[in-house]
C-alpha cells in the first residue's frame, strides 16, 4: 500500500494537534520501506511524516523512536553537534502500527564533491561521526537495539562471507582476501561504540560547512565504529579523507585503534557481499547481476594493487 501525499498530510494533522496543512510535497528521494512527505503548515513550518509500508518497517520505527527520544536529549545537552528527527506526534494506521511526524531538519543532503581538505565541511563531518561514537552504549541497549562485542561482530562478518561464498558468485581471490583479514586477530581488537549503521550522503544533512542533522537511525547498534566510516573511504574524495579522519580522531577519546581504517575498507567491500545476498534472498536477478559486476570490478582492482605493490620487490 502506497499512501498519497494528501493521505500523509491528513495523518500529520492527526499526529500534531493544531497543525493546519497548507501544502504537501514528496521528498526528492522517496524510501522503499516508508511513505514519506513534507507537510507545510500555515505558518510555513515544515514537518516530515513517515508511515511504514509493512509490519517489519513498523517494528523498526518503534525501536527507532525510543532511541531518537534519548538522542534528542543528547542534542539538547550539547553532546551531539547536530539534530536528529525526533518525533513530536503519532497517528495510528488502520492496518496497525503508526505514522510518526517530526519537524524538518534544515539543510540538504551531503554532496560528496563538496568535501575538500581543510577545516570546513570535511572536518565537521569527522567531528559529527566521532560524536556518535562517543555516546554511551547504554542508549542503544536501553532502546532494545543490538549490541555486540568485538568477537561477536567478527563472527557476524565471518558468517556473511561464508554465506556469500556458498552462492559461488564471489571471485575466489576476493574470498581469500576477506578470509585473511577475518583471521587476523589483531585487526579485530577494538572497543565497540554506538554506530549509526547506515550512513550515506542522503542520511547526512548539511548547510554550508555545518552538519545539521543525521537521519534514519533504524540500523543503530553497538558495534564496530569502522562501519560508519566505510562509505566515506569508498566514495569521498581521497584528498578530503585526511581532514575527516584527523577531525574524527581529535574528537574521540579512544585513540588506540590502529586498524580502524583497515576494518572500514573491509566493511566497504563486504557491503557488496551483503548486496549480493539481498539479491539472492529476494530472487532479484537485476540486483544479483549488479552485485556480481561490482565484485568482479573490486577483484580486478585489488589484483592491480597487489601487482603494483609486488613490482618494486621484483625489480
Brief write-up:
With 315 residues, this protein is an alpha+beta fold. The protein is built from ten helices and ten strands.
Descriptive report:
The protein has 315 residues and is an alpha+beta fold. It has two domains: 5-104, Phosphorylase Kinase, domain 1; 109-314, Alpha-Beta Complex (Aminoglycoside 3'-phosphotransferase, Chain: A, domain 2), CATH 3.90.1200.10. 50% of the residues lie in helices and 15% in strands. It has helices at 5-15, 55-76, 121-133, 138-142, 150-166, 172-183, 227-235, 238-251, 260-282, 285-314; strands at residues 21-25, 34-41, 46-52, 89-92, 98-103, 108-109, 193-195, 204-207, 210-214, 221-223. The strands form three sheets. The chain has a five-stranded antiparallel beta sheet with strand order 1-2-3-5-4. Strand 8 and strand 9 (210-214) form a beta hairpin. Helix 5 (150-166) packs across helix 9. The relative contact order is 0.12. Residues 26-249 form the Aminoglycoside phosphotransferase domain. It comes from Cellulomonas fengjieae. InterPro entries: AGP_Transferase (IPR051678), Aminoglycoside_PTrfase (IPR002575), Kinase-like_dom_sf (IPR011009).
CATH class of the largest domain: Alpha Beta
Order of helices and strands: HEEEHEEEHHHHEEEEHHHH
Strand order of the largest sheet: 1-2-3-5-4
Tell me the β content.
5-15%
**Helix percentage:** 40-55%
CATH architecture of the largest domain: Alpha-Beta Complex
Rg, please? 21 Å
**Main pleated-sheet profile:** 5 strands, antiparallel
User: Overall pLDDT, averaged?
Assistant: 91
Number of strand segments: 10
CATH superfamily of the largest domain: Aminoglycoside phosphotransferase (APH), C-terminal lobe
pLDDT < 50 stretches: none
* CATH topology type of the largest domain: Aminoglycoside 3'-phosphotransferase, Chain: A, domain 2
Organism: Cellulomonas fengjieae
Pfam families: APH
Protein name: Phosphotransferase
InterPro entries: AGP_Transferase (IPR051678), Aminoglycoside_PTrfase (IPR002575), Kinase-like_dom_sf (IPR011009)
Amino acid at each position: 500500500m502506497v499512501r498519497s501525499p494528501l493521505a500523509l498530510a491528513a495523518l500529520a494533522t492527526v499526529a500534531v494537534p493544531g497543525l493546519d496543512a497548507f501544502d504537501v510535497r514528496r521528498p526528492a528521494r522517496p524510501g522503499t520501506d516508508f511513505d514519506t512527505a513534507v507537510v507545510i503548515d500555515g505558518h510555513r513550518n515544515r514537518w516530515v511524516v513517515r508511515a511504514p509500508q509493512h509490519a517489519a518497517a513498523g517494528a523498526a520505527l518503534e525501536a527507532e523512536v525510543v532511541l531518537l527520544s534519548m538522542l534528542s536529549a543528547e542534542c539538547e545537552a550539547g553532546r551531539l553537534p547536530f539534530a536528529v528527527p525526533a518525533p513530536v506526534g503519532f497517528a495510528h494506521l488502520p492496518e496497525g502500527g503508526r505514522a510518526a511526524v517530526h519537524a524538518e531538519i534544515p539543510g540538504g543532503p551531503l554532496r560528496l564533491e563538496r568535501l575538500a581538505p581543510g577545516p570546513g565541511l570535511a572536518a565537521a563531518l569527522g567531528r559529527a561521526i566521532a560524536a556518535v561514537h562517543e555516546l554511551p552504549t547504554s542508549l542503544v541497549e536501553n532502546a532494545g537495539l543490538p549490541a555486540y562485542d568485538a568477537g561477536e561482530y567478527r563472527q557476524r562478518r565471518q558468517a556473511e562471507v561464508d554465506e556469500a561464498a556458498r552462492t559461488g558468485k564471489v571471485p575466489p581471490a576476493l574470498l581469500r582476501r576477506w578470509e585473511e583479514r577475518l583471521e587476523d586477530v589483531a585487526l579485530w581488537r577494538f572497543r565497540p561504540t554506538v554506530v549509526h549503521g547506515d550512513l550515506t550522503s542522503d542520511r547526512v544533512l548539511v548547510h554550508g560547512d555545518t552538519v545539521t542533522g543525521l537521519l534514519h537511525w533504524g540500523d543503530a547498534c553497538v558495534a564496530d565504529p569502522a562501519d560508519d566510516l566505510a562509505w566515506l573511504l569508498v566514495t569521498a574524495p581521497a584528498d578530503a579523507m585526511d581532514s575527516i579522519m584527523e577531525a574524527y580522531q581529535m574528537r574521540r577519546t579512544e585513540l588506540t585503534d590502529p586498524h580502524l581504517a583497515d576494518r572500514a575498507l573491509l566493511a566497504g567491500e563486504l557491503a557488496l557481499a551483503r548486496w549480493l545476498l539481498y539479491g539472492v534472498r529476494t530472487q532479484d536477478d537485476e540486483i544479483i547481476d549488479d552485485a556480481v559486476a561490482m565484485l568482479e570490478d573490486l577483484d580486478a582492482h585489488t589484483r592491480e594493487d597487489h601487482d603494483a605493490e609486488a613490482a618494486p620487490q621484483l625489480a
